[in-house]
Amino acid sequence: MDDAAVLKRRGYIMGINLGEGSYAKVKSAYSERLKFNVAVKIIDRKKAPTDFLEKFLPREIEILAMLNHRSIVKTYEIFETSDGKVYIVMELGVQGDLLEFIKTRGALQEDDARKKFHQLSSAIKYCHDLDVVHRDLKCENLLLDKDFNIKLSDFGFSKRCLRDDSGRLTLSKTFCGSAAYAAPEVLQGIPYQPKVYDIWSLGVILYIMVCGSMPYDDSNIKKMLRIQKEHRVNFPRSKHLTGECKDLIYRMLQPDVNRRLHIDEILSHCWVQPKARGLSSGAINKEGESSRATESTWTPESTGADKKSATKVEPREEARPEAQLETKPQEDTVQVARQAETVGLTSELNRESEEGHLQQPSETHT
Fold it and tell me: Where are the stretches annotated Disordered (predicted)?
């Protein structure tokens, strides 16, 4: 029985193709029960690799079934047929993803960015409170509903955090996600705190929202790591960002994991809280630095770079010489897993390797 017939028996009228990979595809469909369009991810177990079937798919299904938040894509139904196909029926992001939105319309005004970022941060707090980490936060995985509200999608890299006997979260040792959004500790192969990793990705996303460009050029991973470890964040002068906004981004893109903000600190930050805005230039933050002093460490971009798209980054100025990194990632194996679909088709590139290093995707994964 083909997909259209299977879906018809479940009360869905199959529509257009929204995205396709080597073992999964996403279709639009009209739900006769819900009376609106949905997205249906269809996974063929016969074509999928073993590690995906044994680890990633069970994790994703378990987590999708437990999530219920207004800023997370809803999962309406999950079922499997006897011929080994899994159907995941989800909320449809009718306005596409945030990356395409920014590429088309440019950087967001701070008020619009604040609203969308608050929605996203609330979704991450909800997940983190459940000890669920996303680990693939990027603009392509942020869908927009009919009113342009954020809907977090694609939990293919997500997992439940484990705790040790003392109740502390255990570290993760494997790389996952996209290099452009990955924290420096992840790119270096250092055991990392997965919730803290999510925060770095949030910082990259907010930067893209308000600047319309990437904060770092990931075409040279070694150079990018040097700049990140020096805690250098360059903002376009022409965007006229407020000090509060730059302060928040700067503190999320903190290479020291012990000083990087937690999700509760993000939600309580003066830029995120409209009623508490008006951070004075001499206000002292939790790290013992004034916002004025913090701002002086930013390296402004030249105004000629202001027209960059969110996917193209011009090289920044050379970072200062630094000792070689202890763990040097192979630059030719770090690939940005650009998601071609707008409805959360699980990325098939850069799946984590159990050995804890960057893994070259095999042909069966591309």
Answer: 281-366
DSSP states of 109-171: PHHHHHHHHHHHHHHHHHHHHTTEE-----GGGEEE-TT--EEE---TT-EEPPB-TTSPBPP
| Other C-beta atoms lying within 10 Å of the C-beta of residue 354 | 10
Owning domain of residue 55: 12-92
292, 282 in Cβ contact below 8 A? yes
Phi, psi of 203 (to 5 degrees): -65, -40
Residue pair 204/181 in contact by the 8 Å Cβ criterion: yes
**Coil, helix or strand at residue 332:** helix
One domain, residues 19 and 153: no
Tens digit of each residue's pLDDT (9 = 90 or more) over 245-256: 999 999 999 999
The residues, any chain, with a CB within 8 Å of residue 67's CB and separated by 6 or more, are 75, 126, 127, 130, 132, 155
d(CA 316, CA 310): 15
Are 78 and 108 within one domain? Answer: no
Mean predicted lDDT score pLDDT of the chain: 79
| Overall average pLDDT of the 188-206 stretch | 95
Catalytic residues: 136
Contact between residue 169 and residue 162 where contact means Cβ atoms under 8 Å apart: yes
CA dihedral angle for residue 28, residue 31, residue 34, residue 40, rounded to 10 degrees: -40
Q: What is the pLDDT averaged over residues 166-175? A: 81
Placement of tokens 């080597």 in the chain: 22
pLDDT digits (tens, 9 = 90+) for 307-362: 333 333 333 333 333 322 222 233 222 222 333 333 333 333 233 333 333 332 32
How many angstroms from the chain centroid is the CA of residue 292?
29
Summarize the confidence of residues 74-95 as an average pLDDT: 96
Q: Structurally, how many domains does the chain consist of?
A: 2
Residue 346, pLDDT score: 31
